[in-house]
Amino acid sequence: MNVMANYPDYNPEDIQRELREILPEEAISKGLFERINNALDPYTSSDDIDRGMVPYAVVWPSSTEEVSQVMKYANTKNIPVFVRGSGTSLHGASKYRHSGIVLNVGRLKHFSIEKDNGYVEFGPGHRVLKVKQMLEEEGYFLPLVPGSIRVASIGGIISNNTSAHAVDSCIGKPRDYILGLQVVLPSGEVIETGTKSLRRPAGTDLTQYFVGGDGLLGVITGIRMQLVPMFASAYGVAYFHNELSSAKAVQRIYMEKAPMPLFMEYLDERVARMSFAIQNLPEPPGSLIMFHSIGQTEEEAVHKVNKLVEAISKEPVIEAKRITDMDEWHKIWLARESALPFICQGGKGVFGLSEIASSVRGLVDCMEDTINMDEGMPTLSKLGKPYIMGHLGALSLHPVYIFPADWSAEEKNKGIEEMFFKEAQINEKYGTCGGEWGQFAKRTPFYRKRYGDTVYGLVKDVKKVFDPNSILNPDVFRD
Ligand SMILES: Cc1cc2nc3c(=O)[nH]c(=O)nc-3n(C[C@H](O)[C@H](O)[C@H](O)COP(=O)(O)OP(=O)(O)OC[C@H]3O[C@@H](n4cnc5c(N)ncnc54)[C@H](O)[C@@H]3O)c2cc1C
Questions:
Q1: Where are the transmembrane segments (predicted)?
Q2: What does the pLDDT read at residue 1?
Q3: Are the CB atoms for 268 and 387 separated by under 8 Å?
Q4: How far, rounded to the nearest angstrom, does the alpha carbon of residue 428 sit from its chain's CA centroid?
Q5: Is there a smaller number of Cβ atoms within 10 Å at the N or the C end of the chain?
Q6: pLDDT at position 149, please?
Q7: Domains defined for the chain, CATH in brackets
Q8: Measuring CA to CA, how many Å separate 171 from each of 140, 159, 323, 362?
């Protein structure tokens, strides 16, 4: 049964037949497996999807024109459309609660580097890693680096405006690099936003509504992004007696005005031990931060790393050093990159990952609250303290719980709910709102509480202007 009653119920076969009139046969998945698979997020299994939630069809348009035809059709028939990149949202944005059409952007894959214009244009359907590799081949850097780089779509990342591992105060967010977009509105109209110049528009620029628009206002079908020339790099690591000292060291870096690195990643001692062992690295003496600084020249990058080591060394630290052995750096970085699968293997279960952002001043207290997030939570307290890793330089922490494989789905769900409850509570306490994964779906109630009814109402009004029939990703508002 549809959760939201204001959409007509259709027979999936009728919808599939009508879609065949506007799309080629190979662009429509009718099979139950594809339909269910395209309605799940990382925390759901097919058991959590009841019949009324199964999409009528999954469509795979290969051009903006085809996207436009699908949207026109859906808008006329008042059918919800769920835009899907890779479905890796960790806040439920890619889990659907009633039938509709899933519009998978996976075939929108044009790509052209315009060096003499200083930008690159691409479709939203590429995996992030693919875009990174294609840019690197030409000597450019992709300024967004999510943990999901191998699976997430570049369009999903841009819709969430997440820079992920990268430190915002060094390199900014995707929004700072997007020059313009091609977007299909819920009505099916195609619009262009932004500019072809590296001189960005002053004043109102609709690009900014769609980058970080959480897929609420339109379907992004083309992206123009500024080219970022590759830079020189230098690396460092610091080990601490405990988690709170690591947080204190990061505060110190900000207070000392040391140059923020591109990456400053954190592993607590338990996670570091587990992931170092798998990389055959010596056992780490404590929790750690690893950092990657950039500069126009190697000297500049090394200078920045040395400044960080100097600032960190003013706090109680077991060791802080520049890493010159690239093999050591690659192993440490790989330990970080693959920490999540290692924790899942070690803990033998399903991961539950949340995201807490701190203010600079609150970082030590926020770390403590995160360590203690099981307190007062009946399900989480069965598991004890979370594993913690994250982008500490960017002030983001990822507490991780492993829900044992033999727990019932209901118990796992309770644990996940408690985890997000605590996430919201801590983010609210520090006046933050999370820095990754977007703002809606599971975070919607938090968003409303955090910013109040006026702001929440304005967001819904903006949505209504772009999407008067509320057909695009309507599930994220729960009222
Ligand atoms: C193991 C793992 C690690 C992760 N690491 C990170 C991390 O480090 N940082 C981080 O921020 N996130 C991370 N994530 C979460 C996730 O990868 C991001 O939220 C990512 O932005 C989602 O991309 P996607 O292609 O899977 O989008 P989906 O989950 O398919 O969609 C996300 C939202 O964007 C909308 N959307 C997608 N494409 C478009 C489009 N073309 N036009 C309009 N709307 C669109 C969707 O409708 C939906 O609302 C991780 C997830 C996993 C499973």
A1: none
A2: 34
A3: yes
A4: 20
A5: C
A6: 93
A7: 12-107 (3.30.43.10), 111-229 (3.30.465.10), 232-333 (3.30.70.3450), 339-429 (3.30.70.2740)
A8: 14, 18, 22, 22
Residue with CA closest to ligand 1 atom 12: 437
pLDDT of residue 330: 96
Q: State whether the beta carbon of 80 lies less than 6 angstroms from ligand 1.
A: no
Q: For residues 35 and 98, what is the distance between their CA atoms, to the nearest angstrom? A: 12
Q: What is the pLDDT of residue 309?
A: 98
Query: Which atom of ligand 1 is closest in space to residue 91's alpha carbon?
Result: 19
CB 357 within 8 A of CB 435: yes
Q: How far apart are CA 411 and CA 425, in angstroms?
A: 21
Q: Which of 84, 150, 193 to mutate to test the pocket of ligand 1 (most atoms within 8 A of CB)?
A: 84
Q: Is 42 in the pocket of ligand 1 (CB under 6 A)?
A: yes
Q: 87: Cβ below 6 Å to ligand 1?
A: yes
State which amino acid sits at residue 295. G
What is the pLDDT, as a whole number, of residue 3? 42
> pLDDT, tens digit, for every residue of 300-350?
999 999 999 999 999 999 999 999 999 999 999 999 988 888 787 777 788
Would you state the pLDDT for residue 2?
A: 38
Q: Collect the ranges in the chain with pLDDT lower than 50.
A: 1-3
User: Which residue, judged by its Cα, is nearest atom 28 of ligand 1?
Assistant: 87
- Beta-strand ranges (E) seen in 211-360 are 219-226, 228-229, 232-240, 263-267, 287-295, 319-323, 349-353, 356-357
State which of 437, 439, 477 you would mutate to test the pocket of ligand 1, scoring each by most atoms of that ligand within 8 A of its C-beta: 437
> Ligand 1 centroid vs 131 CA: distance in angstroms?
15
Q: How many angstroms separate the CA atoms of 152 and 163, rounded? A: 13
